[in-house]
Structure prediction request, 41 residues.
Amino acid sequence: MDNPFVCPRCDHPITTWQHDGETYQRCLSCGFKNTTADETD
Prediction:
């Protein structure tokens, strides 16, 4: 279990990185993007 995040679109692992104190997630397979930054959810 290297990466607990999988893409909701294609089930490939999602790459996670941090920038300016915020965490971003993107699937390098299909390009799906997610962010855990504070947003209206």
